Each structure stands twice: as C-alpha cells, then as structure tokens.
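Work Package 4 report. The design task specified in the project plan requires that, given a folded chain encoded as structure tokens, an amino acid be chosen for each position. We show below one input record used in the internal validation round.
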C-alpha cells in the first residue's frame, strides 16, 4: 500500500488512532465548536476533510450539512478505518480514503475543503496549499483550523509545535484568493476563498 507520509512527518498508528478515537476528541470539543462556527455562513454541496483522523469532527460537519456529499482523507490507514467505522455507525454516507494534503484521491472539485490540527504537520505548506486550492470549486473555500502559537507563552507548552502563529498565518497569500484570519482564545482559522 502507498505511504502518504513524508520522511520526518508524525505517523499515527493503531495506538494513537485508538487514543484519538476514544479520548482526544473529548478534549477537543471547544476547538470543534470553533471550527463549526467558522463554517456558519457556508452552504457547501461537496466537502473534503484533509487529515480527518478518526472522523469525529467530520461527523459533526456532515450533520451540519446533511445534503452535502462528504469526503474524508488521512495518511494513516488506521485513521481511515476508524473514520469509515464511525460514519457507518452513525448511518452517514461518506467516502473515506487514504490520502494527504499533497495527494487527494478524488477527481472532484469541492465547495469546502478544511483541515483541523493537521496543517502544522505538513512539510511543504505553500505547495500543499496551492495544490489544495486547485481542488476548490468556483466560490469554494479552504479552511485551516489550528491552535494559535501566540496564545501559549511557555516554549514547553504541549501545543508549541502543534500550532501556528498569527504572524505566520498573515504571511500566507495566494493570487486569486482572498484570505481571512480569525482568532478566538487559543484557536486560529485561515480561510482562502476563490475570487470570482
């Protein structure tokens, strides 16, 4: 099977998948609420979650937009299996496949592509964003949700390397796309919307 990880990227195996599926999502409810709020004015008919993990937020998003076609990818086969199982258990139809921010296994264009707590893992972020933007439908939005580095004062903070700074977010600009940055407490979002 194809390996979707690059050298040096954090890999998620059986035990980390079990932890995220059973425990971590409970600790992330506030972040998930922030992510859902960032989608409040959207009406997508097709959605892609990149780095979906076990699909806990994916389920919430698919319930928020029940008429949208839903797709989820993750580089970890263990996470993909957990996603599929969670969607089946909830009775929600979704296409879950192995993939990454640089290798999306669908030919579709999407109204909404989002990634939550995955972006900080990517090695070549600019190239990955450009690739993802090419997968947006007209008037589509790419949404990045992360912990905000500026919020955590201690370099010893658990979130230190699992976050991005507002200054870094402000440095990301791509021709043909409007960028919007929102923050709330320890969370930051970046939205890239195709300019018509």
């Amino acid at each position: 099977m194809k390996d979707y990880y690059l050298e040096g990227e954090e890999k998620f195996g059986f035990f980390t998948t079990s932890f995220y599926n059973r425990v971590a999502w409970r600790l992330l409810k506030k972040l998930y609420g922030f992510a859902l709020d960032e989608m409040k004015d959207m009406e997508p008919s097709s959605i892609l979650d990149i780095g979906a993990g076990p699909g806990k937020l994916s389920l919430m998003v698919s319930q928020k937009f029940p008429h949208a076609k839903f797709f989820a990818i993750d580089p970890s086969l263990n996470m993909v299996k957990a996603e599929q199982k969670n969607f089946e258990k909830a009775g929600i139809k979704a296409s879950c496949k192995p993939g990454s921010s640089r290798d999306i296994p669908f030919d579709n264009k999407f109204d909404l592509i989002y990634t939550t707590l995955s972006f900080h893992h990517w090695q070549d972020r600019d190239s990955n964003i450009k690739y993802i933007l090419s997968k947006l439908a007209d008037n589509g939005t790419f949404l990045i949700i992360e912990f905000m580095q500026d919020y955590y004062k201690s370099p010893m903070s658990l979130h230190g390397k699992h976050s991005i700074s507002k200054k870094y977010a402000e440095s990301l600009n791509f021709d043909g796309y409007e960028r919007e940055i929102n923050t709330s407490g320890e969370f930051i979002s970046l939205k890239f919307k195709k300019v018509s």
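Residues 14-194 form a domain with the Rossmann fold fold (CATH 3.40.50.150). Validation will be extended to a larger panel in the next phase.
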